[in-house]
Structure formats: C-alpha cells, structure tokens
Write a structure and sequence with these properties.
This is Integrase catalytic domain-containing protein. With about 140 residues, the protein is an alpha+beta fold. The chain is built from three helices and six strands, in the order αββααββββ. It has a four-stranded antiparallel sheet, with no helix packed on it. About 5% of the residues are buried.
Length: about 140
C-alpha cells in the first residue's frame, strides 16, 4: 500500500508548475520536486513493504491498479481545474506568443507529457485567440 502512495506522491511532485526560465528556446519547467530534491523527479522510488503476507507479484499488481485509478481520477477531476480559460463565463486574457503550455496526451502518462511554448497565435472573427502553434523539443503542433 505504501508503494502506491509513494508513486502517487511522485506523480504529484512531478507535475509542472511554471516555466523555469524565460528563454523561448528553453523547454524546462518547474515542479514541486525542485523544492524537494533540487531537480525534476524522473522516476518513482521502488519500495516494497514486507510487513504483509502478500506475494511480491500481488503487491506489484495492487500498486499498479492504485496508481492507474489515481491518475484516471486526477486527470478527470483536478486537471480540468488547472485550465484557465472557462468557456463563455468570463473574459480572460488570450494566450500570448512565448507562453509555456503543457501538452496533454491521453495515450501517455502525465510524466511523459511534453512542455511547449506558443510560437504563433491564430485569431477568430472576434479577434480572440482560437488556435495556437506550439513548439516542443521534437515538433510543432497546431491546436
């Protein structure tokens, strides 16, 4: 059980808070892990408690199920609260060139989501930003 909590703690401490530097060519982000160990937490500490009479494979399977449930719930409930652009309820500033963004990919784990910078904005008929071109280390994405 404690291994599952360690993995959840590692995932939370690896989530991006803000950009580390203001250089547009730098894709470094700042995480809670920087407060704890001085750098991004890239792995999950492996620890298996031997206090219980469960086999290691059962403990491993249990921790994997707990971690998957946590990420599924966290991405549905908490990730949506991080969005700063609610639809039609209030006027918010448009995204600007050089803003840092997190690219959500439902096919990968949150630790593997890439960080990008907005390189170009596309305005709609109402002169509000409706699409952006985002540059990452590997490619450029328009959304």
């Amino acid at each position: 059980m404690s291994t599952g909590l360690y993995q959840i703690e590692s995932c939370i401490n690896s989530s991006s808070i803000t950009a580390l530097l203001s250089d547009p060519s730098d894709f470094q982000d700042f995480t809670p892990g920087h407060f704890l160990i001085g750098s991004r937490i890239t792995g999950i500490p492996e620890h298996i408690s031997t206090d219980h009479k469960m086999s290691y494979s059962k403990i491993w399977n249990l921790t994997q199920v707990l971690r998957q449930r946590f990420w599924h719930r966290w991405s549905k409930e908490c990730l949506h609260q991080l969005q700063t652009h609610p639809k039609w309820t209030s006027s918010t500033p448009d995204l600007q060139v050089r803003d840092m963004v997190l690219l959500h990919d439902p096919r990968s784990t949150p630790l593997q989501w890439s960080i990008g910078r907005i390189s170009k904005t596309f305005a709609g008929l109402d002169n509000k930003t409706r699409a952006v071109s985002k540059s990452t280390k590997k490619r450029e994405v328009i959304r």
